[in-house]
Amino acid sequence: MNVEKMLLKCEFEQWLYDEAQLLDDIEFDDWFDLMHSSLRYQMPVRTNKEGVERPDYSTEMFTFNDDIELLRLRVDRLKTDYAWAEIPPSRTRRFVSNVRVKDFVEGEKAVVKSYLLIYRSRSTDIQHDLISGERNDEFIFEEGKWKLAKRIFIVDQTTINTRNLAIFV
């Protein structure tokens, strides 16, 4: 790996680390500012397939399939008394790893893959959630900043063992 590729990888790692901190710190408005106006934010339903058949997730059914307007509504709802699933807010810790820049056009676009592990605890509950998967992100460079234009989160579990999924991935 040459120095330019290492610096590029480091740039997107830092972007993803900063994003994780905003989410863990419940700074949803600042996190939302990282999104591009053309955003598509998806989590396909995981399926079980025979052998090595791929993809092993649905391309037509989603746990969530948000555009920028729907994501804005989700963020705004968390600031109201109607977000019962997140009162009090979950305590989360996001661990980002295996960041790979798969495609890059300087000053235009980038495709980045990463792994995500989320630890989540709720109120005084002694149970916790672990959610893991791979993120396939597409970025657009706009006004001197990288903005997230598409995220597909491929969760590792076929059945997610959590009471709700009111957090962001």
Produce a short descriptive summary.
With 169 residues, the chain is α+β, with helices and mostly antiparallel strands. It has helices spanning 3-24, 28-32, 68-77; strands at 35-46, 57-67, 91-105, 109-121, 128-142, 145-155. It has a 6-stranded mixed sheet with strand order 2-1-6-5-4-3.
Can you tell me about this structure?
The protein has 169 residues and is of the alpha+beta class. It contains three helices and six strands. It has helices at 3-24, 28-32, 68-77; strands spanning 35-46, 57-67, 91-105, 109-121, 128-142, 145-155. Strands 2-1-6-5-4-3 form a six-stranded mixed sheet. β4 and β5 (128-142) form a beta hairpin. The longest helix is centred in the first third of the chain and has 22 residues, at 3-24. The radius of gyration is 16 Å and the shape is globular. The two termini are 29 Å apart. The mean pLDDT is 92.
Topology:
Blueprint: H1 3-24, H2 28-32, E1 35-46, E2 57-67, H3 68-77, E3 91-105, E4 109-121, E5 128-142, E6 145-155
Parallel strand pairs: 1-6
Antiparallel strand pairs: 1-2, 3-4, 4-5, 5-6
